[in-house]
Amino acid sequence: MSNGNSYNMEFEKPLRELERQIKEIELFAKEKEIDMSEEIARLQDKEEALKKKIYSELTRWQKVQIARHPKRPTFLEFVEMIFSGFLELHGDRLFRDDPAMIGGIAYLNDIPITVVGQQKGRDTKENIYRNFGMPHPEGYRKALRLMKQAAKFKRPVITLIDVVGAYPGIEAEERGQGEAVARSIMEMAALETPIIAVITGEGGSGGALGIGVGDRILMLEHAYYSVISPEGCASILWKNAAEAPQAVEALRVTAKDLLQLQVIDEIIPEPLGGAHHDPEKTAKTIREALIRHLAPLLEYPAGQLLAERYEKYRKIGVFEEIEQTEE
Q: What's the rounded Cα separation, in Å, for the pair 85 and 77?
């Protein structure tokens, strides 16, 4: 299935041109009732070879563009394809329900779980309702409430992360955005139930980190994960958001980078061209990975689970100590 060709990225233009040529020849052959199957087959082979070449040589910035593709599956779409019996739960019991952060109870292969994640919109109206997938503090407080409920009833937690960042507006700051994200990180670290986090698209700043603590961190092949958005980094370092492609190179935000740095535990492959070309296949691959990683975690006693989670985060990062000698 391919449903992502209505939105073209610059590096895909040669591919779109080939697809246009193939369609024109097919239409011409049908109208004139002539056999042009050999020419069509030749162009289709060329198209397939070009696809493999383009998507095997993607730059970091091109991967970020794929992660942001407007047709990329959203949280609710993934939930529908991966889990069964999803029941959404609402509100943080403090201020209001945040539509940008969704959570609830579902089944993964007959295992009851709690699933939480950010929800982007598909059109302007829904994006305004969902605040473009950027949660307010009450979104993180809702997520934490549901995760603590999961621990109380011995349900594993699965988070699906796709957010450019937590909402930076004045009202969010007034209601304690930084505190809400920090508390979520702190309490997830001590949550006595298995946690698996999956970065499915954008993994930007505290918006992602706020629900990103886990015993296993998985990441889709063309997703990105960073302590700051590329544009935010570029604005700070070069005073120009247009330098985002350069910032991405410095940040090393791709799944391949983060696996090498041992920030994540596994890269989940995507269909050729990205998840938006075959959402069902992508969801199936995520589901298989979740079941495979969750099974051993369910056998861990709480003490071992927390100890290994602590060690996992202590090991992230490489540094070198140099003793200064007196001359």
A: 14
Distance, in Å, from the CA atom of 264 to the CA atom of 217, rounded to the nearest integer, reads 5
pLDDT in tens, 38-51: 888 888 888 888 88
Phi, psi of 165 (to 5 degrees): 165, 160
pTM of the model: 0.89
Residues 205-254 pLDDT 10s: 899 999 999 999 999 999 999 999 899 999 999 999 999 999 999 999 99
Q: Say how many residues make up the chain.
A: 327
3-state secondary structure of 151: helix
Which CATH number is 65-315's, of 3.10.20.310, 3.90.226.10, 3.40.630.30, 3.30.499.10?
3.90.226.10
Give the other-Cβ count within 10 Å of 141's Cβ: 24
Residue identified by tokens 């490489």 is 318
Q: CA 34, CA 217: separation in Å to the nearest integer?
A: 54
CA 318 to chain CA centroid, Å, is 25
The span from the CA of 112 to the CA of 85, in Å, is 9
Q: Are 148 and 191 in contact (CB under 8 A)?
A: yes
Query: Which tokens belong to 311?
Result: 């060690």
Joined tokens for residue 210:
């706020």
Among 117, 62, 60, 78, which Cα is nearest to 289's? 78
